[in-house]
Amino acid sequence: MRYILRRLGFFIVTLWAAMTVNFFLPRLMPGDPAMAMIARFHGRLSGQSLHAMEAAFGVNTNQSLIAQYFAYLGDSLTGQFGRSLTFFPDTVSHVVFMALPWTLGLVGVTTVIAFILGTLIGMIGAWTRGGWFDSVLPPLFIILSAFPYFWIGLVAILIFSISLGWLPTGFGYTNGEAVTFTLPFIWDVVRHAFLPAGTIVITSIGGWILTMRNNMIMVLNEDYVRMARAKGLSASRIMFDYAGRNAILPNLSGFGMSLGFVVSGAILVEYVFSYPGVGYMMLQAVLNEDFPLMQTLFLFITLAVLIAILVVDGVTVLLDPRTRRSS
């Protein structure tokens, strides 16, 4: 219980620090969202329109910095993030929650798939080290992970979309179709997600394979593994229950961080495939100087990473009894 309370305290303090930094960074940059919107209209706006935009974007020059800070904390806790400059007059909350399911479905699923496949391949490669499996698959995926995301994506588009015509070149679904939960629409979404998902898996699986293989080789030299072999236990039980369970523990922290960064999306992949996710939206926000949207996205990323770390800490406590003992 004391361990959980310590982690919760760390979570609260870190979240407060991140929100504080997130508040001051946009205010250290020149200009503000209202002025950026005026630049779009080449200054053809009245003073009343300027004040209306400042109120809409949450920029109140009559308040002190401290008052703005506490107003920002209150608005963040209640989900009031202002209006987006890029998608004006939509609110930032509406814009983010429209793109979030696409990123969670694409990057979240592919991150889990890459972790599971990489862990299994690394585990089997360490168990059969020196054999054909260990000599072919791990080096192949590690080499592929060295290629940039966007390069693999462009090659995939060239081969499977342009040359063979099997899959769409980009976007989340066919333009002009209504978003429904029918089987034809779901299949259309899956077809559009196949290439970006394959790109993410290919370029991220190598790291999981390498770390799991190294951890597994170290664990296989431990005394309790030798004892399990001496007792005549089956190879599958030794590999999964004795060696694999302990070798995977260092990888859980990295997996938790990866799950947290799912919210940020794979920016280059979503940009190459014009996928309507958070990563593509973040790039648009930066290019359009959309400070409210950038601020909200950074806050969501921080919150997701902290929650993922907190969950992974809980899973580690369940898997490793040593973490439950007091020093």
Please explain how this structure is put together.
This protein is mainly alpha-helical. The protein folds into 2 domains: about 30-80, no CATH class; about 95-325, MetI-like fold (Orthogonal Bundle), CATH 1.10.3720.10. It is about 75% helix and about 0% strand. It is built from 14 helices and no strands. The protein has helices spanning about 1-30, 35-40, 45-55, 65-75, 90-125, 130-145, 150-165, 185-220, 225-230, 235-245, 250-260, 265-270, 280-285, 290-320. Helix 7 crosses helix 8 (about 185-220). It is flat and about 75 Å long. The mean pLDDT is about 75.
Summarize the topology:
Elements: H1 2-28, H2 33-40, H3 47-57, H4 65-77, H5 92-127, H6 132-144, H7 149-163, H8 183-220, H9 223-230, H10 235-247, H11 249-260, H12 267-272, H13 278-287, H14 291-319
